[in-house]
Amino acid sequence: MIQKIKIIKSLIIIFSLIFTFSANAETVEEIIKARKALFSKNYSTAKRVQALSSKGDFDRAKELMIEMSENYKTLLGLFPENTKEGFKTESLPIIWEEKDAFNALMQKSSDNMIKLTSVIEDSDDIRATLREFMWSSCKACHSKYRMPH
User: Fold this and answer.
1) For residue 115, what are the CA distances in angstroms to 97, 126, 134?
2) How many CB atoms within 10 Å of residue 19?
3) For residues 131 and 110, what is the distance between their CA atoms, to the nearest angstrom?
4) Contact 39/75 with Cβ under 8 angstroms?
5) The CATH number fitting domain 2-145, selected from 1.10.20.10, 3.10.450.590, 1.20.120.10, 3.40.630.30
6) Do residues 69 and 121 touch, judged by C-beta distance below 8 A?
7) With helix as H, strand as E and coil as C, how does the chain read?
């Protein structure tokens, strides 16, 4: 009887480890997919911001800038230690090695989008203003923290 209880306990431990590993793998996959989707969304939104700003539709462009700012804040929480590898992540290990610098860049990107809402309408050179406050953040992240392709 004691032997059966030990076997049952061992099976319970094994099944819980398997379940925990499977649940963790799904969570890691979901996190990686979520951050990839947000970066992709920010890129397509940035292109829309540029098009709208160039046409003088600043109200709609500003709504999108605020959306991008919020996306950058969300990204701050999508790089836990257990998401360094797998699921076709294009993130480089330097993100976790220099986590404070990476987080600062995400925060700066968010802040820059808010600043952009206040300067875009008065800009003499919309393209240069977008480059300074929006596209430079994309470039800074891609050049240091993303696999080249």
Assistant:
1) 29, 14, 10
2) 10
3) 15
4) yes
5) 1.20.120.10
6) no
7) CHHHHHHHHHHHHHHHHHHHHHHHHHHHHHHHHHHHHHHHHHHHHHHHHHHHHHCCCHHHHHHHHHHHHHHHHHHCCCCCHHHCCCCCCCECCHHHHCHHHHHHHHHHHHHHHHHHHHHHHHCCCHHHHHHHHHHHHHHHHHHHHECCC
Cα distances (Å, whole numbers) of residue 24 to 13, 16, 126:
16, 12, 45
Residue-wise pLDDT for 83-99, tens only, equals: 987 787 888 898 999 99
The predicted pLDDT at position 12 comes to 59
pTM value is: 0.78
Beta-carbon count within 10 A of 12 CB: 10
Residue type, 137: S
- 128 CB burial (10 A radius; 0-12, 13-18, 19+): exposed
